[in-house]
Q: What sequence folds into this?
């Protein structure tokens, strides 16, 4: 049976689909968080060089990867909204920004906590850290710019431009450890494989999956509120059971 | 430095409270804000519909 995916590009149909997916995503995310933390703290061995402190990796790396991927997805949706004038794309971009900003914050925060025992400092103006901080500012700039314009469609267009221009920062973050001499270690996960212990890999990938599912659940929940807000004058919103209550 | 000594003596507490605790707090705040935003939006729409007017 062929599925008409374009049907879900309409806010009215996507609202229902997102509502059905959220509980599944949330439960799966909670379970994966529990499994990931168990493997990370009870199964994974102590690191020979970093001792117990390396265990911050199980939240630091997923948060960092999510902050970069979410930005690219946000910029992609923003570009779609700008080019094709699709309403849902712009709403999705707005819904992704706060979650991306929070993951960027968690990445920086946990990085500082890892840096202190390993390097002796909370912060350095190192290429990887500085470019990640710029990513957080780009997210905040996107949110602030969108909020500062009253007309939502104009706000979508203005913030979309910022998102698209800012996407140049994401490859800079990724390649910063190769392009410049930095204190930050190289990429933990490479396309050619990883030198990590299998239990460490399992914990990190499980936590990454948990973070992905959490991000999807939260973004879907936020986009449903944005859809309600923007479509409040339409007939289908008036017919929703939660509105009629 | 007292903090340096403490963190090396209590690495698990340092990791749990400092990174995982903060991450969970961030997630909890985000979920709470989402719940409030949805509640406020629904209330606004119900009020608008009950008054019979469009904004």
A:
């Amino acid at each position: 049976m062929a599925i008409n995916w374009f049907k879900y590009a309409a806010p009215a149909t996507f609202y229902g689909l997102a509502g059905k997916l959220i509980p599944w995503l949330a439960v799966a995310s909670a379970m994966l968080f529990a499994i990931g933390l168990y493997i990370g703290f009870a199964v994974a061995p102590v690191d020979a060089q970093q001792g117990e402190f390396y265990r911050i990796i199980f939240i630091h790396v997923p948060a960092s990867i999510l902050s970069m991927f979410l930005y690219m997805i946000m910029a992609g949706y923003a570009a779609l909204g700008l080019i094709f004038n699709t309403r849902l794309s712009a709403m999705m971009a707005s819904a992704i920004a706060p979650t991306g900003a929070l993951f960027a914050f968690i990445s920086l925060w946990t990085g500082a906590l890892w840096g202190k025992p390993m390097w002796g400092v909370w912060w350095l103006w190192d290429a990887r850290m500085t470019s990640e901080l710029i990513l957080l500012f780009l997210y905040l700039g996107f949110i602030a710019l969108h909020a500062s314009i009253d007309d939502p469609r104009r706000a979508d267009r203005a913030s979309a431009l910022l998102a698209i221009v800012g996407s140049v920062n994401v490859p800079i973050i990724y390649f910063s450890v190769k392009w410049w001499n930095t204190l930050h270690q190289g990429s933990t996960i490479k396309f050619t494989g990883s030198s990590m212990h299998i239990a460490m890999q399992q914990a990190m990938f499980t936590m990454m999956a948990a973070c992905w599912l959490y991000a999807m659940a939260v973004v879907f929940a936020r986009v449903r509120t944005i859809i309600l807000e923007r479509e409040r004058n339409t007939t289908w919103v008036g017919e929703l059971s939660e509105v009629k209550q | 430095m007292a903090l340096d000594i403490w963190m090396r003596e209590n690495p698990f507490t340092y990791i749990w409270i400092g990174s995982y605790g903060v991450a969970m707090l961030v997630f909890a705040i985000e979920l709470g804000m989402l719940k409030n935003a949805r509640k406020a939006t629904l209330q606004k729409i119900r009020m608008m519909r009950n008054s019979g007017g469009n904004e």
